[in-house]
Amino acid sequence: MDVEDAYDIIERIIVNGFLTAELRCGGSYIVLKNMTDREAGMLDLFRDGKSRIEDMSCKMALCTLSIDGTNYMSLRSEAIPVLMDFWSGAPVSLMTAAIDSVKGINIRYYEVLDYLEGFCYSDKSRYLWRVYKEGGLYTVPGVMAAGMNAVQENWVFVNRELDGEADYDREFHLALMVASSLNSAGAKVISKNYDTAHTESAELRKEITKWGYDKKRVEGEKKQAAWMAPVRSREDLVRELYRQMRGAKDKHDLFIEKWMQKQRERAEEAKNRALERATKLREKLQTPVSMDGEDSRRATTEEIAALVSAPVSHVGKYMSAYEGLDKDDRFLRKIGARVIGD
Prior knowledge:
The protein is elongated and about 150 Å long. Strand 1 (20-25) and strand 2 (28-33) form a beta hairpin. Helix 4 crosses helix 5 (76-88) and helix 10 (150-182) packs antiparallel against helix 11. Strands 1-2-3-4 form a four-stranded antiparallel β-sheet. It has three domains: 1-229, no CATH class; 233-283; 312-342, no CATH class. It has helices at residues 3-16, 37-40, 43-46, 52-62, 76-88, 92-111, 116-120, 123-132, 141-146, 150-182, 184-211, 215-227, 234-246, 251-285, 301-309, 314-321, 327-340; strands at residues 20-25, 28-33, 64-67, 70-71. The chain is built from 17 helices and four strands. By secondary structure, it is mostly helical. The termini are far apart. Helices cover 70% and strands 5% of the residues.
């Protein structure tokens, strides 16, 4: 579907609340519409799920806009039983043609949903928003009778956000003007970053408006889906077997291989970090046994024997110095040792 055609259809859905199709049968002129989301939830109020004819008659009644100039949207609750009687007694040819017409407009309705984002960023959309705003949509006959559909609800939400962005942009520049008087250099940096982000966003939305959707993102999603697509036919299976026999790698294989390589690199980095921490810990725990910086070692038997046979150091020296002295001389010697550090 062409982008401009899709935008025209979306505009009709927003302004009218639905799409329409005309049907002539004999001398009757019937205008049909697609069933909105809210009307689909009203089916159980009027139909009996056990009767197929009543179920189809109820659906066609909700999809009927007017018959021979009589608009049934104004008095919806009273009109549904009348329209159900009309369609339950209609000829098979008329019912078949009406069902085909409703299917056609339903297909167009769901096809244009892919272009809704691009339409919301367009100038035409912003003009409609200024005309209708949110409260203005409730004056549309279709919205008054059946409520807002999904297209209208999403359109209102996006335009609210765009209005919020415009208010934020205005307040931001006012605050930036005040901040520039206090810190001009910082204000320039903030303004430059904001302008860069604003320009990138504007360019992206312009591209989305051109195509109706984010073409780059959608193409990326399609490529990713193609990598993971299952084998669906005999030809696909034969093609896959030949590819495996040749040893050729598709994009999915390359993606998995790259992911595995990253996992191995991360595991190697974690291992190296653990070894580095263990080495540093061992270095901290190593303590020298002497002032000469000798490495720690176990004492030999000869060194232990020499240590045991050595005389007592200070205690033995002071005790031998007191031998042969009487009590008073020993006391004076001890006091002198304490004072002068003998």
